[in-house]
Amino acid sequence: MPPIQDKHSSQELLQAQVNLWHHALGFVKSMALKCAMELQIPNTIQHHGIFAVHEAASPGKEVVYGLTPTTRLLVGDEVKSNLFPILSLMLDSTVIAPFLGMHSWFLDEHSTSLFKKAHSLNFWEMAEQDDTYNQILNNAMVSDSNFLTDIILRECGDVFLGINSLIDVGGGHGGAARAIVNAFPQMKCTVLDLPHVIAEAPSDVHVSFISGDMFKYIPPANALFLKWVFHDWGDEDCVKLLKNCKEAIPPRDAGGKVIIVDMVVGSGLNEIVTRETHVLYDLFIMCVEGIEREEFEWKRIFMEAGFGDYKIISVLGVRSVIELYP
């Protein structure tokens, strides 16, 4: 094989080197973001569009940093638009450390999850046994629910019309449920989650909390809501969960349906950041033995669980709303 230098121009080779460095140094961007979040140092990440830079008005004056739409999601007291907790989870050392052993995990033929290989506990066992980590996880889920549910209600709130009772399956501390019931006060809204999660859930006069295992039993309701649940589980477990969902709701002509908020790989805006985020998050969730699915993969588990029809609404950036009908 002739040397690569003989087949490509110097500029092509230099650009190839830049591409490799860009991928190899991607973790530095994440760590710079983590550092800037924790220390509130804007110039650490201003080159990535996180902060706007306003040049000094005159020589000797300090540069002024301003907020961008991205930064506004990391600061401030507005509960429904602060994503600091979910970013903190993604960049927590407990989550990052397993990726350092990805090569040996591939060689082991995925005998266990990447997360469990590093910590001897899976993602959910860690949350159950480590109070600090459990709090980080719960705060992250509430943060994401507050942000995303507000947008769901604005962009496609019609999916909740006519629902008398709704159970938020795996709904954590009720962030999504509160937003939904505030928008639809006539709805009876309940959160179902594991005992150690419900034990720390804040009391609420408008939302009920039930301790239980969604793989064993889901109480009956007019509709079910599952946000970011299915991507944590393989197909076999998802089909089992979907069958439990189907048993819990009435027929379609009586208003029964399942509302899923999750990623549908390939849906949404056809631009590089969205597509790359789909791929990166698929690798990220693989750490906990999860999986992101394309539409044909969603359809396969829906049909196997006995559902008759579904509708995908791609208005949530990298995620979508799926209405699933029995």
Characterise this structure.
It is a single chain. By secondary structure, the chain is of the alpha/beta class. It is 43% helix and 17% strand. It contains 14 helices and eleven strands. A seven-stranded mixed sheet has the order 5-4-3-6-7-11-10, sandwiched between helices. Strands 1-2 form a two-stranded antiparallel ribbon. Helix 12 links the parallel strand 6 and strand 7. It starts with 9 loop residues before the first helix and ends with a strand. 27% of the residues are buried. The model has no long low-confidence stretch (mean pLDDT 84).
Question: Secondary-structure blueprint of this entry?
Answer:
Layout: H1 10-24, H2 26-39, E1 51-54, E2 64-67, H3 69-72, H4 84-90, H5 93-96, H6 102-107, H7 114-119, H8 123-129, H9 131-156, E3 165-169, H10 175-183, E4 188-193, H11 195-198, E5 207-211, E6 223-227, H12 235-248, E7 257-262, E8 264-265, H13 272-286, E9 293-294, H14 295-304, E10 309-316, E11 319-325
Parallel strand pairs: 3-4, 3-6, 4-5, 6-7, 8-9
Antiparallel strand pairs: 1-2, 7-11, 10-11
Brief synopsis:
The protein has helices at residues 10-24, 26-39, 69-72, 84-90, 93-96, 102-107, 114-119, 123-129, 131-156, 175-183, 195-198, 235-248, 272-286, 295-304, and strands spanning 51-54, 64-67, 165-169, 188-193, 207-211, 223-227, 257-262, 264-265, 293-294, 309-316, 319-325.
